[in-house]
Amino acid sequence: MAEIKLVVIYPRPTDVERFEHVYVTEHVPLAKEKIKGVTKFVATKAVGTPDGQPVPFYRIAELYFPSIEALKEAAASAGGQEAVAHAISISTGGTPIILIAEEESMV
Hints:
107 residues; alpha+beta; 4-stranded antiparallel β-sheet; 38% helix; globular
């Protein structure tokens, strides 16, 4: 069965150290408080490609929900909108890409 998630892909920031500080100390706590219904949160940092090339994206956040309805409700809520606005405001490398995705895991 596929899991539903909201994926936020941040472009490489103009100041990585500053972005990290704000992301970890402000944004993640805000998102955890304001976005209701999240069952799992995964934060990934893109460090490069296998051949050592830089990548245009820096952070990928994945917020899992029990259903598409729960995701849509959270995204439409005042808290969800506040968290999205904050994500956009801290993304100094450009506007983050925000997707709704289904994840299928295979073993």
